[in-house]
């Protein structure tokens, strides 16, 4: 599975894409004294443009100057640009290496990297680990797929530990990236439009997180996830395998016994009753297991881990309780951009629920939600430019289904459909790009609309 270390020619770096990762990569390239040029198809965010101007980094917007791009010795590609994009095909055929920003950044540090990936729960687990690191007073930064880019954080100064959330798109562009601890939470069908609609391609992408690890590194993984255990069997990573399981007790790793988490990886096991966790729900127990295991591998004190798990406040846009109006609880789960994330959300509903769903479909199979919709959902509010697939999937599950194409309308309709004691849940199961900039924009618009009721 491991590859030979690739040596880069950094003399002339071209960055494609001017978002958080692209601008971070450009700033790092400039900071290290390389010739750098950034090309972005759309207009740049004003703050990003100012950051580039301040460092005298040349850039273009609204076009890609192919002649200039083809002079690059190395191209750093933003994760949103697929490998199949004509420009990427052209530069690849020209023999220019194309890598991701996390790969570029990792080439410029020997600091300890802890990287978390998975189809669901990676932001919560990374944020929970960040809270543990903060309470433990470690010298660390947290970012990657959330917050600041890895490259931007290297520009800002050194740190002993780099805690990163990493996506499959970021992992697709690595050759040397080597986390000391890799955490693989789960793999369920997501982003299949980027992987030829083949689940195995997506699994292979996630497994790249362990591709360069050796026997001194650790892979913390979900032993209950058949896709992961099969991929580990197939790829045979060289790192020390540290499993966690919700379904069976493990002699080595983390498991659940009598509603108590037990992490047994050394002579002093960590234990904690799940009722003491600040985060509720089965999926969050699994996230807490992964985080506690990682913290133990880093030799963080048990009492510090326990204190952190009790005081963590959760993540914005992930089952975030917004307001209670007329005894109806409004819940923002905008970060649920795939079916599996929405499965967890619906499964945690304890009251009749008006469910707001929809957006850009990524090859979703909604059938796994039918049982939960029958059990918990009293009405569905569709929110998207094309709701036909959702309407077709769930029309037989609920009596009331309303189509909307703005957040304000969706919330107003949900308000009318909900009765005292109900929940209104935004858990879209889809990407946000049809009506919103991103899932954060979608979640904030939901909260603004709720506050405006």
From TrEMBL:
Q: What catalytic activity is recorded?
A: UDP-N-acetyl-alpha-D-muramoyl-L-alanine + D-glutamate + ATP = UDP-N-acetyl-alpha-D-muramoyl-L-alanyl-D-glutamate + ADP + phosphate + H(+)
Top-rank taxon, per record: Bacteria
A GO molecular function annotation here is:
ATP binding
Which GO terms of the cellular component aspect does the record hold? cytoplasm
What is this enzyme's class at the first EC digit? ligase
Report the Pfam families cross-referenced here.
Mur_ligase_C (PF02875), Mur_ligase_M (PF08245), MurD-like_N (PF21799)
Q: Where is the Mur ligase central domain?
A: 116-294
Q: In which pathway does it act?
A: Cell wall biogenesis; peptidoglycan biosynthesis
Q: What does the UniProt keyword field contain?
A: ATP-binding, Cell cycle, Cell division, Cell shape, Cell wall biogenesis/degradation, Cytoplasm, Ligase, Nucleotide-binding, Peptidoglycan synthesis
> What job does this protein perform?
Cell wall formation. Catalyzes the addition of glutamate to the nucleotide precursor UDP-N-acetylmuramoyl-L-alanine (UMA).
What protein am I looking at?
UDP-N-acetylmuramoylalanine--D-glutamate ligase
């Amino acid at each position: 599975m491991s590859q030979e270390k690739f040596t880069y020619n950094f003399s002339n770096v071209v960055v494609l894409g001017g978002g958080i990762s692209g601008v971070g990569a450009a700033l790092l390239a400039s900071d290290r004294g390389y010739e750098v040029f950034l090309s972005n198809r759309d207009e740049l965010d004003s703050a990003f443009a100012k950051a580039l101007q301040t460092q005298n980094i040349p850039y273009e917007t609204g076009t890609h100057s192919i002649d200039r791009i083809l002079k690059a010795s190395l191209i750093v590609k933003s994760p949103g640009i697929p490998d199949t994009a004509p420009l990427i095909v052209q530069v690849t055929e020209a023999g220019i290496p194309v890598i991701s920003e996390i790969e570029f950044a990792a080439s410029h540090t020997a600091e300890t990297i802890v990287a978390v990936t998975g189809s669901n729960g990676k932001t919560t687990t990374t944020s929970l680990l960040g809270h543990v690191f903060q309470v433990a007073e470690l010298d660390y930064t947290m970012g990657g797929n959330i917050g600041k880019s890895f490259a931007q954080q290297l520009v800002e100064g050194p740190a002993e530990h780099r805690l990163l959330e990493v996506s499959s798109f970021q992992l697709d562009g690595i050759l040397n990236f080597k986390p000391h601890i890799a955490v693989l939470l789960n793999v369920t069908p997501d982003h299949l439009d980027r992987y030829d609609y083949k689940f195995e391609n997506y699994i292979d992408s996630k497994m790249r997180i362990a591709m360069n690890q050796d026997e001194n590194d650790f892979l913390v993984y979900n032993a209950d996830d058949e896709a992961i255990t099969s991929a580990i069997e197939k790829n045979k990573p060289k790192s020390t395998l540290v499993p966690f399981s919700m379904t069976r007790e493990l002699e080595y790793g983390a498991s659940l016994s009598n509603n108590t988490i037990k992490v047994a990886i050394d002579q002093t096991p960590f234990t904690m009753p799940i009722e003491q966790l600040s985060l509720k729900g089965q999926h969050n127990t699994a996230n807490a297991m992964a985080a506690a295991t990682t913290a133990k591998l880093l030799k963080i004190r048990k009492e510090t881990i326990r204190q952190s798990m009790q005081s963590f406040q959760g993540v914005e846009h992930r089952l975030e309780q917004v307001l209670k109006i007329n005894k109806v609880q409004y819940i923002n789960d905008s970060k649920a951009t795939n079916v599996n994330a929405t499965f967890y959300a619906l499964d945690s509903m304890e009251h009749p629920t008006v469910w707001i769903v929809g957006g850009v479909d990524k090859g979703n199979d909604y059938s796994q939600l039918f049982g939960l919709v029958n059990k918990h959902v009293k009405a569905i509010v569709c929110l998207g430019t094309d709701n036909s697939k959702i309407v077709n999937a769930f029309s037989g599950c609920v009596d009331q289904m309303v189509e909307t194409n703005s957040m304000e309308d969706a919330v107003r309709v949900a308000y009318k459909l909900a009765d005292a004691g109900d929940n209104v849940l935004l858990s879209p199961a889809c990407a946000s790009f049809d009506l919103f900039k991103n899932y954060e924009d979608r979640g904030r618009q939901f909260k603004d609309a709720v506050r405006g009721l």
